[in-house]
Design brief:
The complex is a heterodimer.
Chain A lengths: L12 H23 L7 H23 L7 H26 L4 H7 L2 H5 L16 H9 L6 H6 L28 H5 L6 H6 L12 H16 L17 H4 L5 H11 L5 E3 L2 E3 L11 H13 L16 H7 L6 H10 L4
Antiparallel strand pairs in A: 1-2
Helix pairs in contact in A: 1-2, 10-13, 12-15, 13-14
Chain B lengths: L3 H9 L13 H26 L10 H4 L2 H26 L3 H31 L8 H33 L7 H27 L4
Helix pairs in contact in B: 2-6, 2-7, 4-5, 4-7, 5-6, 6-7
The chains are: A mainly alpha, B mainly alpha.
Chain lengths: 343, 206
Amino acid sequence: MANRPGNPTKHGVGQYIVVAIILGIITYLEFAIVEYDAAWLGDTASLWWLIILSVAKFVMVILFFMHLKDDEAAYSGFFGSGMVIGLGTYVAFVFLMTAPGSLAFVRSQLAPETVAAHGTEAQDQDGGHALPEAVRTLILSDGYSRDLPARLGDVRPKDQSWRVQPPAAPTTGWTLSAAASPAAITTPTESTPDEAETSPEASAGSGGWDEALGEATYSANCASCHQPGGTGIPAAFPPLADHAAYLVGVDGGRTYLIDALLYGLQGPISVHDMSYNGVMPAWAFLSDDQIAAVANHVLHSWDGAAGVGSDFAPIRPDEVAGERDKGLSGTDVHDLRSALDLP
Amino acid sequence: MMSDAQLTTAAAERPAHGWRSSPLPDVKLIMWIFLASDVMFFGTLIGTYLIYRGRSLVGPYPLDILDIPLTTLSTFVLLMSSFLMVIALHALRNDNIPMFRLWTIGVALFGSIFLGFQVYEFSHFVEVGLTLQQNLFGSTFFVLTGTHGVHVAVGVLWLVSIVVASYFRPMRAKDATYLEVAGLYWHFVDIVWIVIFTLVYLVEFI
């Protein structure tokens, strides 16, 4: 085989060194474009330069390091057809997501008022697409129910609320927040509402909790699923209005509410004779203050006289801190909920 | 269809110098076919990442936690490991066994450094709240880069085993194809990372 065209011994080490240096320079250029924010290039030009530079690296490694430049054409053929099929799969995938009939397309055809009404009844759209109720609910509950401009204009892409925010007690990070406040660990979080109401430290502050923080946290993190009015989305995300206040009143409900916020919830549940099976993500990256505030926001909004009432002791950040070390999963929380005395 | 007996006969009737359907070395051909399938595999994972890009409903988001300087460094390390790989192959082809062993171990070492960066990156991400289940970004990111990391780890083990084996069963220039095939795999893992580095990391910060 020594005389095959694919025998790369004819390449000197010098060629490899030159290629390696060029690869290093290109990598630095890519880094520089991004890190030094090449404003003079503009976003579009920057993007194209990044693509061109990485394709250049890709091609150089294939041609010189993998020797395709001088090796059998059959190898290039195999590899090339793999790339064509791979790219074709991607194009087909994108087409599936955007073509007429796809979920994304049908959703974009839904009238805004239909979206707002959460598909309570099937409507015949102008194109004649009469969507079955089940399909409409599925579409509206898959996390895309807000259109793109709404999502882009949202505070969430710039939302930094997941970052560690120093709670009242000095901590080194949310994972340690409970350990830094030993008193919080021993706080009887299993207390019934009656006991909590008589708890002296619960009445700190005017309303007992940060209303602005609660509202901001809710609209930034919760409203997309549970909706601004706390109505939830049928079959996917349960309502909070007319439900959360009742839930917190049962034995263990207070702890359950905090656990559901910290660790999420996975598994089918039933509220007001309707079953819900959306996944609640874990929100442990929010601060104790944020979780306590948003829980109180939920408990005091929408329900009026049917809510928790003015004598309810708001959920305190140290109660949240006391739940942090449990390390539950969404399924564990579901078990906790099943253990509650609910109808 | 030939029966087993016929096949045996056919094998016995081969010319003494061997009978081949293709003039290409078997292991190299198989490696290229494998790479062609692997490129489709990674194409699917990268495509999935791109399609779900920017659709996470909760944080952490890519902009918040991706670290460009760190990843540039690990990318550079991986590129240089590819350079060492061709140098090692060059040494073996020239029957320079000590240099072949040295550079091949160098490749494995650089690959291990890259893996170290990835372990650090993953554990940091999990620490700030990005897990496989946290959001679409977490799911697609960890599956894509995790699969790539497994490829790198397999490559490291492969290269180390070649060097170890060379002490028991001496390698000569005529055996270079075996190292070349491992090198092809290694370079492939490198070019996949070139794509990931651009599409997952850099583009996010434009």
